[in-house]
Amino acid sequence: MPRAKHLKNTLRQQTQLAQLTLPAYSIRAPVSFLHTHTLSLAPTKPIAMTHTRHAIFLNGPIGSGKTTLGRGLADRLAGGFIDGDDFSAADRPWYCSIHSTSKAIVREGLTVLMHAPTVVIAYPLGCVNWIYYRRHFTDAGVRPFFVNLRASYLSIVAADRGRAFSAQERQRIKVMIDEGYAERRFSDLTVDTDQQDFAATLDHLERTIRERIFT
User: Fold this and answer.
1) In the prediction, which pLDDT does 93 show?
2) Which domain range does residue 163 map to?
3) What's the Cα-to-Cα distance from 197 to each of 29, 105, 161, 193, rounded to whole Å?
4) DSSP letters along 130-183, please?
5) What is the pLDDT of residues 164-192, one digit of tens each?
6) What CATH number is given to the structural domain containing 195?
7) pTM for the full model?
């Protein structure tokens, strides 16, 4: 091949490589579907700050306050509320229906955002569905914001917490805490829900979120 033609082909290949769109996230450890809490993740591209609609995810183990705080927060922000468990397949384990559940949550979230500026979504998150939600809401022009709700096992199952748990639920709470559901490293904020009463915790959550995403 003549030298000039070879150089031309090389330049064309380099140009094509330079035009490739790289994914928005880098994963520094192998993805494990059921043990995502061990991953170290870092966004390589920041979320644009010009979005006017927000999807706020409340993540945490069973009993950490996702639903009660979520409803209260949605009310204060004049937004809508989604309980992600409402979209899970009751007859299948969560890991078998995670994709269909995630799709349904995004679809419902975007429907809510047609009529409200904010949607609050209560649902425990792993790395895989965090990436899914972050991508799909951002692509739709919505800024996602992720919050860990953290509480100790003894605080969650305490009698004055106001909720009774079955033996199976208690075991699941222990597993979720051990798996890091209350301390996801990809989240934007962590709030302890066992340090103050409900009203004070909701006040703190609302105030912090307004400072982070509305100012």
Assistant:
1) 66
2) 51-213
3) 38, 29, 9, 8
4) HHHHHHHHHHTTEEEEEEEEE--HHHHH-GGGS----HHHHHHHHHHHHTTTT-
5) 999 999 999 999 999 999 999 999 999 99
6) 3.40.50.300
7) 0.75
